[in-house]
Amino acid sequence: MRDKPIADRAGGRNPLISQTRRPTPELLVRLLHRDATTGLLRLRLESPSDLWRIARLVRPGDLVGASTTRRDPEAPADVPGAERVRRRVWIVLQAEQVEFHGFSKHVRITGPIREGPFDIGRHHTLDLQEGDEVTVLKAAMTASDRVLLDEGIAGTGEPTILLAAVDWGDSSIVRLRGRAIQPVADLKRTIAGKRYEGGQGEKDRKTYAEELVGLLRREGPSATAVVVAGPGFLKEEVVRRLHDADPALAAKVKVYATAESGRVGVDELLKSGRATEALRGSVAAEEAEFVERLVRSLASGTRAAVGRREVAEAVDAGAVETLLVLETLLTDPEVIPVLDRARAARARLFIVREEGESGAKLTGLGGVAAILRYDWTSPSRGTTGSPGSPRGVRRSGA
């Protein structure tokens, strides 16, 4: 038996279709519309981070509307199916499967069509990309849903930050935008020793510095800020050359000292928190800093809770300042109520991506952990950790 029409559930109108046909230009921001009576969300996907968020916001059973193309069933019967004209239509489907393809930057949502001009009940796949508008109708909003939505709204115009960790022969440049860390270039070169004035070593160094400056000049104009870090004097040399070649770009540059260069230096700067002001607005940098704070709190012994039991107890005790949860646990029925209680207690919820070093560390700690407001010890924790707690086992990578 077919489900009750969406229009009947929304007071005689279909919110997924009627409110999304012709969005007015002045409303084209990330959150286009929110209907408190129906739970309708109309969103514009403006960045790779938005694609990541929508892939975690939409769950099986949710109703999703978007513009798509589908073969016209009204074409003459003698026309082969492959040759029938595809029409641009707005359809609503009930999500069964959601796939996030970060490399190709798109999200695929598959399920049966519930509303549309034709083919009701047949399966279809919405292929969402940057710039697309999508409408979501959820039966209920969880705490993690609200975090994803709030993060997206607050991230309107997410800054793009260019970060270079440089040293002679080993440098890396990455681009940070929202939750995405995109490699730009890794420069590994063999540089001759500096034995004589004007020798090969000096030529190698000049060429290497010019190559770095060229990359920063190519990628820098689209960045909100440019951060140059490293252990030696190359960072100052690069900034000096950049100032001579492009004073406007040099005005965006901040310089920081790190113990390492290359990808290791990038990770060091993200985790250290020293470049907080320059990296403000970067969720990727915030993620690395939060996980590093958690690791430091664990070392002190009483300002962190790890594992489901400890975190639940800390939430109920009102001790949680920031709760970190791995993205793969957002649909876990045991974790969802803990997140809801934490949000109700005004703790900050932060969702950590599974990929990358931060995700690996949190995975080793059970996928859910908390930084605490004050010294607190779980009543169920023994000398080797509470049963099933990651404290009782070696924390790989932490």
Question: What topology does this entry show?
Answer:
Layout: H1 6-9, H2 15-18, E1 31-35, E2 40-44, H3 48-57, E3 63-71, E4 86-94, E5 97-101, E6 106-115, E7 123-128, E8 133-137, H4 143-154, E9 160-165, E10 170-177, E11 180-188, H5 200-219, E12 225-230, H6 234-245, H7 247-250, E13 253-257, H8 262-272, H9 283-300, E14 304-306, H10 307-316, E15 320-326, H11 336-344, E16 348-352, H12 356-364, E17 368-372
Parallel strand pairs: 9-12, 12-13, 15-16
Antiparallel strand pairs: 1-2, 2-8, 3-4, 3-8, 4-6, 5-6, 6-7, 9-10, 10-11, 14-17, 15-17
Nutshell version of this structure?
The protein is α+β, with helices and mostly antiparallel strands and 398 residues long. It folds into three domains: 6-140, SH3 type barrels, CATH 2.30.30.870; 160-281, Nucleotidyltransferase, domain 5 (2-Layer Sandwich); 284-392, Ribosomal protein L30/S12 (60s Ribosomal Protein L30, Chain: A, 2-Layer Sandwich). It contains twelve helices and 17 strands.
Notes on the protein architecture:
By secondary structure, this protein is an alpha+beta fold. The protein folds into three domains: 6-140, SH3 type barrels; 160-281, eRF1 domain 2 (Nucleotidyltransferase, domain 5); 284-392, Ribosomal protein L30/S12 (60s Ribosomal Protein L30, Chain: A, 2-Layer Sandwich). 31% of the residues lie in helices and 27% in strands. It has helices at 6-9, 15-18, 48-57, 143-154, 200-219, 234-245, 247-250, 262-272, 283-300, 307-316, 336-344, 356-364, and strands at 31-35, 40-44, 63-71, 86-94, 97-101, 106-115, 123-128, 133-137, 160-165, 170-177, 180-188, 225-230, 253-257, 304-306, 320-326, 348-352, 368-372. The longest helix has 20 residues, at 200-219. It is flat. The termini are far apart.
